[in-house]
UniProtKB/TrEMBL annotation:
This is 5-deoxy-glucuronate isomerase. SUPFAM superfamilies: RmlC-like cupins (SSF51182). One of its GO terms (molecular function) is isomerase activity. The keyword Isomerase applies. The gene is iolB_1. The lineage of its organism: Bacteria, Bacillati, Actinomycetota, Actinomycetes, Streptosporangiales. Residues 263-283 are annotated as: Disordered. It comes from Streptosporangium longisporum. It comes from the Bacteria. Transmembrane segments: none annotated.
Amino acid sequence: MTHIPHGAAASPPWSVAITPESAGWTYAGLRVVDLPAGTLEFTTGGEEMLVLPLAGSCVVECDGVRLTLHGRTSVFEAVTDFAYLPVEATVRIIGEGRLALPSARASRRLPVRYGPADRVPVEVRGAGQASRQVNNFCAPDTFDCDRLVAVEVLTPGGNWSSYPPHKHDTATDTEAVLEEIYYYEGGPGYQRVYGSHDTLAEVGGGDVVLVPHGYHGPSMAAPGYDLYYLNVLAGPAEQRSMAFCDDPRHAWIRSSWTGRPVDPRLPATRAGRARSTSSGGTP
C-alpha cells in the first residue's frame, strides 16, 4: 500500500508505526506518538532514531543523558530542536505533544546527541509556485547518522514541491538507492507516485505515503491550505546521500526558475541559517 490514511498505521501507543517489515523494505521507518502529559518508554532495537517534536515539548533520557527539547507549537510556527537515539538503547520521554521518531536500520552505534534549532539550515528552493521551504535538520551534510536521513518541507497553499518529479532507486554516480516516507501535517494536498505503480492521493494531517521506488512528485498544496511533510530516507549505501534523478520529461522545469522571484511567503519559519536556491535538491 503506497498511501496509508491517517489511523491505518496505528499501533498503540503509536498513532503511526511504520517499520521496515511493515513497509516491505529494509531500512526506513517512522513512528509518531500523541503523548498526553506523561511518560513513554521504549527500546530502539536495531534502529537509530530521532525525536522530533511536531507540536509540544519533552525531555529525552537515554544512555544516562538527559536532553530537554523545547519543541514548538506546530510545524507551521517554528523550526524545532531534536534528539538522536542510537541502536540498542532504552529510552524514556517525558512531556506532552505530538512527536515524530524517524528511524533507520543501522549498524554503527553513535552517541546520544542534541540537535539545536538554531543550527538547522533553512533553505528555500524553487521559484514562483514551485517555491518551498526545506528544513535540513538531518541531511547528510548537516547531522551525522549511520543511515538515517530526514528533512522537513513546508509548501505554501497553491504551490508544488517535490517538483520536478524525481527518483532515487538506482545506484549510479548521480543517484542513490533510497526508501522514502512522506508524513503529512496540514493540507489537504495531493501526492503523486508513479513508475512501477501509480498513486495520486489526497493527503492531510497524519497521512503517510511510502515510496519504495519510482518517480515521486509533485506534492501539491491546495490553495488556502499550507502543507507540511516530513521526509524519512534510508538506503544500503555506505555514504549517506540524497542523490536523485529527475524524470527526463520534466527536468527542464529547473531552468525555468532562473530569474524568477521566490514566493514571498517563504521562509515561513526560521531558526538557523537561511539560504535560497533555484535549482538544487529534491524535496
